[in-house]
Amino acid sequence: MKVEKFIEILGSGFFTGVPDSQLRALCDYLMEQYGIDSRRHIIAANEGNAAALAAGYHLATGKVPVVYMQNSGEGNIINPVASLLSEKVYAIPMIFVIGWRGEPGVHDEPQHIFQGEVTIKLLDDMDIASFVVGKETTQKELEDKMAEYDRLLQQGKQVAFVIRKGALSYEGKVRYENENSMTREEIIRHILQVSGTDPIVSTTGKASRELFEIREEKGQGHQYDFLTVGSMGHSSSIALGVAINQPHKKIWCVDGDGAALMHMGAMALLGVNCPANLVHIIINNGAHETVGGMPTAAGKIDLVTVAKGCGYPKAVRVSSFEELDRELLAAKEGKELVLIEALCSIGARADLGRPTTTARENKEGFMGYLECEE
Question: Among residues 176, 177, 170, 171, which one has the least CA distance to residue 26?
Answer without folding.
Answer: 170
